[in-house]
Structure formats: C-alpha cells, structure tokens
C-alpha cells in the first residue's frame, strides 16, 4: 500500500490538512450557532502553526488561541490580519511589544495581569480587545472569586480592558459523569452574572460533547481538530485522524532464537524471527516507554516493537507480517493508532502529538482521489 520505490532514511510526518478542515466543519456542525475558537497552542499541537492555521482559516475559522505571544506572532503569518488571536497565558511586561505589534489579544488571568494590561491599554491608540478568564475550580489560570469581585466593582478597569469574551476552562470534561463538570458550569454562570453582559466560552473539545449548555457563544477545541480522542467515549466523536508518522524500513534481518535485540539486550528472541529496523526513534516522537510494548502498523497489520526504542531507530517484529517487508517500506505510527499508542505508553494523545520531532520531513498532505 504505502510502498515507496524511492525513499529517505528520514521519517515523514504527514499532516492531512483536509482532515483538519473536515474536523473543524464537523465540530462546527455539532455546536450550531456557537463560534469556534481553534486552540492551536504549542505549534498547533506539534503539527505546525502556520500551515494548520492557514487550513483552519480556509475552513472558515476566524478565532484562534495560542499560549504565548511568540506563538501568536508566528500564527499571524499563517492567518493574516483578519483573524483574532488570543494569548492564553496572558500579558507579561516583556511581551508587550509583540502583543501590540502582532495585534494579539491577551487573555486576562489575574488582577495583576488586568492592572498591567490596563496601563498598556491606556497608553495606546487602539487597544486590542481582551478575554477575561475566570477560574471556576481548576485552580490553574484565571481570576479567583475575590479578584472577580474586585474587577466587577472597578468599572474603569473593566473599560480599560475592553473585554470581548469571558471564559473559563473545564478540568474533567472527558468524563461526562464527573460531577465537577456541572459544578464548574454553575460556577461559571454565577461568575458571569457578576460582570457586564459579555459573550461566554467554556468548552474545550471534550466540553463540546457535554452538550449544548456547555457551548455558550464560543467553544475552543484543540485535540478534536487534530484527530485525537477527547473523551472517554471516542465512538461518539466526530473527528478523524490527521497525523501519520511514517518511518522507512532501513534494514530487514533474520535472527535466531536466543539472540537479543537493541540496547541493553532487553529483548531475547523466543524463536527464529524476522525483524525490521525502521528510521524513527524517540527523537522523532516514538516514546521510549513503547519499548517492548508498543506496536506500529505495516501492511495494515499491527507489528510489535522489540527491544528498546533508540534515538533514531525502532526495531519491529515482522515475522508474521503477511506481505514482503523490504527496505524503503514504511511503518506507520500515530494515525488511527494514536489512542492505542497513548494507552500502551501510559501517556496522553496530546503529548504524543506535541512530542513529534523536528527532524521529520513534513508533508502537508491533501489526499489524492485514488488514495481516498
Ligand atoms: C488547550 C486548551 C483548550 C483546548 O483543549 P482540547 O482539550 O485540546 O480541546 C481550550 N481552552 C484552554 C484554556 C486550553 O488551555
């Protein structure tokens, strides 16, 4: 199937931009009138902020969330002047120039950030809009109850901040039965009622699946745009896979029962075996934690990782692979296999995406008709 006659020893990271657009549209259809603010922090979950931002813009997205001012500046190159870019970590003194220069909108997470940004805002001609982030129980970023009261009483401060959205973030949304979801929803409504009427936003991808009361005027999906399962019930989710890490087969070997494989000889062949050495290792995002546990996909078959994953290489047991395995062939990591990999490695699908290495050749892919 994915057999390349000509190959490189370098792995390829294939990002299916059409799938990102389709995921955007599917989530948009799910939330109806609510807007989508795409969460594209950490270089769009490791996939590349500029091409991903451009694809989402092409699908109709006009609101984006990044973590830092630097990420916002980079994203601006991809999405042009007409998209709103919010900076989740908020404003800091050293980021002032970048925030103003790239026309980024800071999320205000504390009274300290509010006072700092009000002072900046009062100095400039057209101060950017902001979003006010309320902490409703996660105890991560956001104004707490006392700070909220302080802000609600200080009309001048509120006006200087020019708030366009009031937002909060859910701690336990993947598990719909967790009582914390309803508690946070109630706390959010109560907090918002203290403030002047402003559009609201609460849900990440998982929050979208908690249903309409969680959608408000904007949802902020990230992982669902990039094909990762967000909830404990992935069957209900509308996203399809986006990312494939394709490792070229560099060598195929036959080993005898009793021989060992890889660093520290952590694997001993129980029988005569055929193994494939493929060109992607932990530097490329195949976690060491998958050593002797994980699998890759070759010829639509799951093939086990044997021995310890190395920096640049992974060794696969292809004894059972039905078709010929030869140099230049391809082993697939991620793809529809992403959730399995995160379970086996005891990690998050989010982490597996953002840990994808910088060394991969990046292939921003549009499926050809015959592949579909
Ligand atoms: C990362 C993040 C999101 C997106 O979360 P997903 O689980 O990837 O959908 C939304 N809001 C905030 C505040 C975030 O930090």
From TrEMBL:
Ligand binding (substrate): 140, 311
Alphabetized GO MF terms: alanine racemase activity; pyridoxal phosphate binding
Keywords in alphabetical order: Isomerase, Pyridoxal phosphate
Reaction(s) the record says it catalyses: L-alanine = D-alanine
Active site: 41, 263
Pfam families: Ala_racemase_C, Ala_racemase_N
Cofactors that this protein relies on: pyridoxal 5'-phosphate
Entry keyword Isomerase: yes
GO cellular component, one term: cytosol
Pathway where this protein functions: Amino-acid biosynthesis; D-alanine biosynthesis; D-alanine from L-alanine: step 1/1
Residue ranges constituting the Alanine racemase C-terminal domain according to the UniProt record: 242-365
UniProt entry tagged with the keyword Isomerase: yes
Record's function text: Catalyzes the interconversion of L-alanine and D-alanine. May also act on other amino acids.
Protein name from the UniProt record: Alanine racemase
